[in-house]
Amino acid sequence: MADRLGHKQTAAMFTLMVLAREVSNPELETVVGFTLTGEVRRQLNDLGYVNSRKVGRSYSHELTDSGWNWCGQEMGVKTPPPNSRSNLINGLYVLLGGFDEYLRRQGLQLAHLFTPEVELTEEEIERRIREAYRQLAGTSREWVGLVDVRKKLGEAPRKKVDAVLKALSGQGRWHLAPDSDRKALTAADHEAAIRIGGDDSHLLKIEVP
Asked: Which residues contact 174 (CB under 8 A, 6 or more apart)?
């Protein structure tokens, strides 16, 4: 079970989790109406949950790996911090518990759900697809489902991913194919498929990932 934190610290941790990047005190105040300062900040730094650094006249903060782990554990607790008398907070923890159960069922991490907004290049998307394929196929170079590949691509836009898949398939460097066992396909498989030459392809194979 995660160490329980105070309400303000908990709010700061979850805010940093959702934004998934370094956040300045002025931005924190704009987003949630308070800054992370004084003993509240120092305790999170000492626990190893948050890295803080002085930027100009203000502090900026970012979750550490331990901080991400704390957020994941806290979401699974399903009960609000001690001394909570707010119906809104109680309801929030019910919602967080639902998110936690969904992530576990799907085999996902918080980082798959909360990622910083970045403009991805075609090179970065290709790298992510290769890495996803390596994780799924290992050294076997087997066919893997596009539905599983897409789950590992984070915030990569669908149109850009499809464009990279089509381009490298057209060059013969990657292979896309329909799944012959159509009866075994799920709705998620159909949603993840890419249409090429009038047929839906559900599988990916990379000879040299």
From this structure: 165, 168, 204, 205, 206
Q: What is the pLDDT of residues 66-97, one digit of tens each?
A: 999 999 999 988 788 777 778 888 888 889 88
Question: Is 7-113 assigned to CATH 1.10.10.10?
Answer: yes
**Residues 114, 161: Cα–Cα separation, whole Å:** 19
How does pLDDT run across 131-146, given as a tens digit for each residue? 999 988 877 788 999 9
Cβ atoms of 125 and 160 within 8 Å: the answer is yes
- Determine the Cα–Cα distance for residues 91 and 79; give it in Å rounded to an integer: 9
**Three-state DSSP state, 147:** helix
Q: What is the pLDDT of residue 1?
A: 52
C-alpha closest to that of 99 among 7, 175, 14:
14
**CA separation for the pair 131, 54 (Å, rounded):** 35
Cα–Cα dist 128/28, whole Å: 31
Dist. CA 134–CA 146, nearest whole Å: 13
- For 7-64, the pLDDT digits (tens) are 899 999 999 999 999 999 999 999 999 999 999 999 999 999 999 999 888 899 999 9
Beta-sheet strand order (sheet of 144-145): 144-145, 203-206, 174-177
Q: Where are the domains of the chain?
A: 7-113, 122-206
